[in-house]
Amino acid sequence: MTCSLCPRRCAAPRTEEAGLGRCRMPSPPRVARAALHQWEEPPLSGTRGSGTVFFSGCCLDCLFCQNEEISHRDAGKTVTEERLREICLDLIAQGAHNLNFVNPTHYAHVLSRLLDEPFPVPVVWNTGGYERVETLRALEGKVDIYLPDLKYLSPDLAKTCSGAEDYPDFAPAAIREMVRQTGRPVFDENGLLKRGTVIRHLILPGHLAEAKKVMDWVADTFAPGEVLFSLMSQYTPFGPARDLPGLDRPLRASEARSAEAYMAALGLEGFAQEGGAAKESFIPAFDLTGIE
């Protein structure tokens, strides 16, 4: 293949011999962890957990990435598509409320084939938001729940923090496509999300104005209740962010409170993360759990 799945469109063949491309990953999926996860939004985690499959590599260069071990340092193990299906079925057998593909963008070609044969639980596309609409359209009818970040709407901040000045061009368009595919949120009798789009935003220290800009866009773009919004306050300095003035500190409680108040004033439906989630202990171990 010559890869054009993500907005980088690097045209790499995605082979060890001829070049791995911008995401540094081969075409076969590399996975770092597959397990029930309790720390997603309540209608995703439920009582038994979300069946998360963490993919290695990434098409973004976020300086503060909590999952840097897999996104930047590429920990994980390459598996066959047959083994990936077995991993998914094992999560379902453990009681997963859904299958949650984390950072799946550069494996959209693999997952589209995998989802040709539907699973008996909802499928979640858990993404940084840096997606091509054309790639998403190939997933229509196969993904039940989209869980995108909307990290920034300011090109300069996107360039500085994620090496993607064009992120504000691609992410909003991708989210509109996701909402077109899923429609309004649909819940089952137990309050678990069956279908819909949940837009996440991680508040960055010193960038409350950006959080408000993102929330304004969501409120202006979608009708009340058309999407769910998840305001995240778990920022913890990781990787290069530890040495960058401004990003080298946790979020202040006052910043989180101000963002939450703004979200409430806009009437955005969704979730505000508790401050206690800003701990390294909440980050899963990428130790090939559920893979080997």
| Overall morphology | globular
Query: What's the CATH topology label?
Result: TIM Barrel
Percent in strands: 15-25%
Oligomer: single chain
CATH 2nd-level architecture: Alpha-Beta Barrel
Pick out the low-confidence regions. Answer: none
Q: Count the domains.
A: 1
Number of strands: 10
- Number of helices in the DSSP assignment: 9
- Proportion in helices: 25-40%
| Major β-sheet profile | 10 strands, mixed
- Alpha carbon gap, first and last residue: 27 Å
- Looking at this structure, what is the CATH superfamily? Aldolase class I
Radius of gyration: 18 Å
Average per-residue pLDDT, rounded, comes to 95
Write down the secondary-structure element order.
EHEHEHEHEHEHHEEHEHE
> Which structural class is indicated by helix and strand composition?
alpha/beta
Which features characterize this protein?
292 residues, alpha/beta, 10-stranded mixed sheet, 9 helices, 10 strands, 17% strand, globular
SSE layout and pairings?
Blueprint: E1 30-37, H1 42-45, E2 50-55, H2 68-71, E3 77-78, H3 81-93, E4 99-102, H4 108-114, E5 123-127, H5 133-137, E6 145-148, H6 155-162, H7 167-182, E7 186-187, E8 193-202, H8 208-221, E9 228-232, H9 253-266, E10 270-272
Parallel strand pairs: 2-4, 4-5, 5-6, 6-8, 8-9, 9-10
Antiparallel strand pairs: 1-2, 1-3, 7-8
Helix pairs in contact: 8-9
